[in-house]
Amino acid sequence: MTIALQSLSDFRAALQALPVPDAAAMAAARARDAQLTKPPGALGRLEDLAVWMAGWQGREKPVADRPQVVIFAGNHGVVAKGVSAFPAEVTVQMVANFRAGGAAINQLSRQFGAQMSVEEIDLDRPTRDFTQAPAMDEAELLAALNRGWEAVDPKADLLVVGEMGIGNTTSAAAICAALLGGEGAQWVGRGTGVDDAGLTRKAAVVDDGLRCHAGAIGDPLRVLQCLGGREIAAMTGAIARARLLRIPVILDGFICCSAALVLERMVAGALDHCLAGHESAETAHPRVLAALGKEPILSLRLRLGEGSGAALAIAIVQGALACHGGMATFGEAGIAEG
Amino acid sequence: MTIALQSLSDFRAALQALPVPDAAAMAAARARDAQLTKPPGALGRLEDLAVWMAGWQGREKPVADRPQVVIFAGNHGVVAKGVSAFPAEVTVQMVANFRAGGAAINQLSRQFGAQMSVEEIDLDRPTRDFTQAPAMDEAELLAALNRGWEAVDPKADLLVVGEMGIGNTTSAAAICAALLGGEGAQWVGRGTGVDDAGLTRKAAVVDDGLRCHAGAIGDPLRVLQCLGGREIAAMTGAIARARLLRIPVILDGFICCSAALVLERMVAGALDHCLAGHESAETAHPRVLAALGKEPILSLRLRLGEGSGAALAIAIVQGALACHGGMATFGEAGIAEG
């Protein structure tokens, strides 16, 4: 049974007591790695991934046999400002596509053995236009955090959180600008493919949002409430819950990372259980990754969202763990060490 | 039944009539991609991979359900010059490890559904020390090319060729220096982990080899004969055969790319059916990739060989093809296009 958050204070309090990686399991994994039939370090980043996973899962031979992919969907009031190349109804249409199995994330989840679910959050009730008012009130933010919090399967051994929400790169850009500084123009990108005029509108909308909520900027959770979206807040909630459950998370692109950034700014180190799955083609994503201190596993110019880049990285983690768990040691194989 | 090469002239002749990608299949794949439920271009490099695979497999929806991994193993006379951190007997020990299922490539092959086989080539008969004589005579080169040629499964839908051979980064460096110019020091790296003194010895050995075979440098196939190894020549043969069978190939690291480079220098465009699976941590590998005009799919600091980096990239190709083949179109999903 999941115990939902009763208040935003509950959420803030939960972040004050975060579990840390199991040092003994990491040491055991490192010792095992040193005995595997390969030159030391020859599997490069795969070795680091295996040891890191060992720490979070608390075992010498970590696994990624039960990855979970959860997609959160929400609608955004700022879409009325012309910030997206697609109309708002595409959010609900894409949710139907997820349920029918027709989206990219369905194929990637199936390919890499992940269970996938979709959580649509009040699609008929977009957030308020954040240039005019806070996107959500406190109760709405809490409800969205809880949707993410409760969506995490405690039995999952790896988590990907993805999103769908026409207009949400604008919201993500506003969150990044508020938490990392700079103007709208430095954080907006083409999203699903806006033209130059759309890009200019996005930057202006972000700047208007920053002005409207200048008083919130010192408090990351209020930034999320004022400038975020329901699906973004749900990702924030899910990433936090995964930490409490010691489930490693693979972060996706710009929007997912904006949700994660809220946690990191609330409590430094809150994303220690997260990998950067990929560097996306959305302009500002590399800068968010740099701010989070995360090196992406993949860099394949994806800019789709839906958790697609992170889902692709599941395969790399699985490859790393297959090597770590399945390889013979020098002793077992009777091979001379270098 | 495989028709083996009767002579080196057969091999040269085979490269004069190479099949090209199926333009109609590529156009069909591109048209399909444009209809899939995502913004145009949003799957980035995955889209290019799917269209490229369509061209080589000659179908709108290419597959990677039967990937083949072949590991070639050979021994090198130059090991006597102290160019490796591991003794030569490790080659045969690692072959036993491949057969027992204990190496990294076994785990990766299993994880991504590839059939894997090992071809050991005269391990008790190392190539000659190339600082003194051609590494192979013509008959030995032909035999090695044929081992690769015959190892390719005509039913495979994707091929990875890997290698094991203590000393073979020295051989690969010599091939690259001969075909791309420069001195030994510019092409040698730490391989399985030689120290500074070993690195200096490797560079000197390469320079000695280049001097000894200066007359061969204008003919890539003679370069392979004089400076290569049996497993390297087998990879050259396998990559060429795959082209004739229109089977796409994922190239591995520095040694595999040196084998591929021989083909590219024999006939420009001979590697059009090859992807670069990864950029390895071996010093000169990025420069070989640049010379081949190939952008690596992954960059995870692997430096193991065995086809491991390429095998990991199988998963990315599979992810790309799963999306391309399995996603709904806008029409099927009833979604408004942007």
Largest sheet geometry of chain A: 5 strands, parallel
Strand runs of chain A, count: 5
Classify the helix fraction of chain A into a percent range.
40-55%
Judging by the overall fold, what is the CATH architecture of chain A? Answer: 3-Layer(aba) Sandwich
| Number of separate structural domains of chain A | 1
Low-confidence spans of chain A: pLDDT under 50, at least 5 residues?
Answer: none
Global geometry of chain A:
globular
Fold-level CATH name of chain A: Rossmann fold
The CATH superfamily of chain A is identified as: Nicotinate-nucleotide-dimethylbenzimidazole phosphoribosyltransferase (CobT), large domain
* Spatial order of the strands forming the largest sheet of chain A: 2-1-3-4-5
Gyration radius of chain A, to the nearest Å? 20 Å
Oligomer: homodimer
Query: Taking all residues together, what is the mean pLDDT of chain A?
Result: 96
Level-1 CATH class name of chain A: Alpha Beta
Structural class of chain A: alpha/beta
Would you give an account of this structure?
2 copies of one chain form a homodimer. The first copy, chain A, is α/β, with parallel strands linked by helices. Chain A has a single domain, classed as Rossmann fold (3-Layer(aba) Sandwich), CATH 3.40.50.10210. Chain A has 15 helices and 5 strands. In chain A, strands 2-1-3-4-5 form a 5-stranded parallel β-sheet, sandwiched between helices. In chain A, helix 2 (23-35) packs antiparallel against helix 3 (45-57), helix 7 (168-180) packs antiparallel against helix 10 (220-227) and helix 7 (168-180) packs parallel to helix 12. Chain A is globular, with a radius of gyration of 20 Å. The first copy, chain A, starts with 7 loop residues before the first helix and ends in a 5-residue tail after the last helix. The mean pLDDT of chain A is 96. The interface between A and B is large, with 61 and 61 residues.
